[in-house]
Design a protein that fits this description.
With 87 residues, this protein is α+β, with helices and mostly antiparallel strands. It has 3 helices and 4 strands; from the N terminus they run βαβαββα. The termini are far apart.
Length: 87
Amino acid sequence: MENLPLVNVYGADWCGDCIRAKSALNQFNVAFTWHNIESEDRAAQKAVEISGQKHIPVVTFSDGSFMVEPSASQIKDKLMQLGQLAN
């Protein structure tokens, strides 16, 4: 079985919401994989396929769910729900 990252973030370096999402994940000590939609092949297309829209960031979770432009508190709540938030 492949060991997939718990969290994936699709976004761009210039995106304020993306910076905030990554900062929140770092603050919560949650490992994530960053997918830069401007430099990673097919990352932009994948983000649209996941969310059905072109807004970023798109944050995916281990249960297959995703959030678009989530706040830090929304990310925290989801991670707590999944039992993935380190204390």
